[in-house]
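subagent[fold] <- orchestrator: predict structure for attached chain, return tokens only, no commentary.
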Amino acid sequence: MSVQCVRCAAPNPEEKRFCGDCGAAMALAPDSVAPLTGPALQDMVHKIIGERFKDQKLVELEIVESIVTRLVGWAKMFAAFVGIPAALAVFVLGWLGISKYEDFTKSMAKVEDHINQEAAAADAAVKITDGKIKEIDALASGVGNRARSTDKQLNELSSQLGGLTGQVGGLLARVDRIEGPSEKLAFDSTFSSEDLARTLQDFVGFQRYLKKLGYEPTNDVVQVELPDTARQFDKTGDPAKPQADHIRFVLDLLSSARYENQKIIIERRFAGDEHLLYVAYMQRVIDPAKKSAALASNPYARAIRNALAIYYACSSTVKSLFAAKASAVVQRPAVDLAAAIDFNTETNDYAPEAWASAFWAIRGILGSDVADQLLWNAWSKSIISDFEGPTSFIRAVIWNTANMDQTKGREDQIRAIFSQRKIKPPS
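subagent[fold] -> orchestrator:
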């Protein structure tokens, strides 16, 4: 039986699915489709679905069984690795008194609070430290700025001082021309530059002080030697004989600082004491060559010469403590010319300290300028060969007292001063 093509109407065999002329799909014959419709089709679909659902459930059961088996294995492993430590932890917590979860949470809360407090304290400390660091940084920055500013100022001052040095040199030269000749000191190379600068500055003032009294210096350069030899001094003294002890101490100081062979000689340890330098220099000033021979054989004259050297060293510096720096070096009390010394010996004609104390008492009555000039005139006009005793110089002092307008009428006061010190005044 042939089937007509629905497109071109050409006849085609029944089993053909496509037209042999135009290639169009052939329509199915009703008889061939009948088995695929109705109840038969439903039965077929249910059968196929049942078989496939059966296979799917089987696969799901197998998967579930595999998962359960694996989970059981993991549970056993977890029990071994986690359960045992957990049990130990529970035991430890129980031993610590934590038997309930509530106890545990309370303990943990306490620990957390403590940690928070410590953390807060640490934060506060860090903030304080940060503040201090910022302050230090600010200070360091300020110090650095000030240091740079100071360096700049020092450089400027150095430049100015460089210019002033030349000006000072010129001024000193002009002063020399105005004031006349002046003597210079030359120290050995071991004298420190700082001590040298201070000593030379002080010496210029001391020499100007002597010029006002009437001293006429030369242009000589006076050598100053600082030997390392050190005379032994008694540190405690003799309390039973205080006056004799004072006299011996003063004589030891005078031996440590002296003018000898046209040189000033001062023990190195006493180089910083201006009084000893002035005393040694005064021996040059008030001991000219024409009087040296007479002084060598006249103990009265030597005592007066040394006393005047001590007095002028103290009067020029307005200090009654003689050689305080040197006394501190040898750990002895300094000799105070203004102290009320008990001159308890029969005579102190040979004691430089007694004479110097008398001169300082005269200074207290007449004033420094008048007393300095009075004593200078008395010594410069005295004839050493006439010094058969202390009365010769005292007579010269009293004579000048009577003939100076500022001191006229004070003669009896001057005599009393020497008498109080057991120095025989003239009648």
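orchestrator: received. Logging for downstream: Residues 2-59 form one domain. The first helix runs from residue 30 to 33.
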